[in-house]
Amino acid sequence: MSLPLPSRQIISNWLKQCLYYGEYLIAEICINLLQKLSPEQASNLGGWICQKIGTKLPVSKIADRNIKFVMPDLSLQERQKIIAGVWENLGRTVGEFPHLANLEQNTKQGAGWEIIGENYLIGQAKRKGPVLFVSGHLGNWEMLPPGVAQYGVPFSSFFRAASNPYVNELILQLRYQAMQQKIPMFAKGAKGAKQALRHLLQGKRLGVLSDQKMNDGIRVNFFGKPAMTSSAVANLALKLRCPIIPGYVKRLGPARLRIIVETPIDYSDLVENNIENVRILTQRINDKIEEWIRKQPEQWLWLHKRWPKEYYKP
């Protein structure tokens, strides 16, 4: 005899909560173990595990196709070296995540972080009005918000919410600890976009990682190849006439990071907020991110299908 539907739903919800809680406990145990290690040890462990496992996963073939697509002059050995570096950097980023709140600035050696271009942040801290920060998944990108916040310009950002609400809250708490303050974070999607616009209209700051594929974006070049790209930063900047501050993180070693903040992107020639100007400004942002990636290709996430889907067909 089958259970009535309400009973099935109750059991299903109970099992889901058990699964969520189990995942949360595993995540918390892993974070606690990483925090017991030094930042360098946690970085080394994460990098070693991720490189050993990641390079054997099918997704590494996507990375290889991406690199071959946009850097055809590289040999197979050179591409494999980049992919190994990608996985190592990703693992190090995960291992360092629970330590970001305690990394010291301007240490002479070992774990810590430094910054180049802080004058651009100091200048923004003195002015009123909205500011857009644009970056990509380079180095330990999680270090950018807390590092920038040290100069009086904390910014909110978008995040992809974890399907497990308990794990999601755990991740957010670590980010708040690193920032040393609780600032609004916006979930990706229509609701989050409206909240972010309202945030900027209040004269606050927003950071956007603009390097991933956006199916409902616009087609502009990335590494000289057409790629669907988010036009959010360009749309917001042209609407609000606010500064766009580009910056990224470069890995110097285990838990040793350098934040590089660059000259605001100039779009003074783009007077009107129209489709063509949005395209031009989005292209400028893509060109900037490409410039960073070419300097340190092993520190960017090549693991997703960034270019048109027909390229990835067998």
From TrEMBL:
The keyword Translocase does not apply. The keyword Transferase applies. GO terms for molecular function: acyltransferase activity. Its main location: membrane. Transmembrane segments: none annotated. CDD domains: LPLAT_LABLAT-like. One of its GO terms (cellular component) is plasma membrane. It is found in: Cell inner membrane. Keywords: Acyltransferase, Cell inner membrane, Cell membrane, Membrane, Transferase. Pfam families: Lip_A_acyltrans. One of its GO terms (biological process) is glycolipid biosynthetic process. InterPro entries: LipA_acyltrans. PANTHER family: LIPID A BIOSYNTHESIS LAUROYL ACYLTRANSFERASE (PTHR30606), LIPID A BIOSYNTHESIS LAUROYLTRANSFERASE (PTHR30606:SF9). This is Lauroyl acyltransferase. It comes from Commensalibacter melissae.
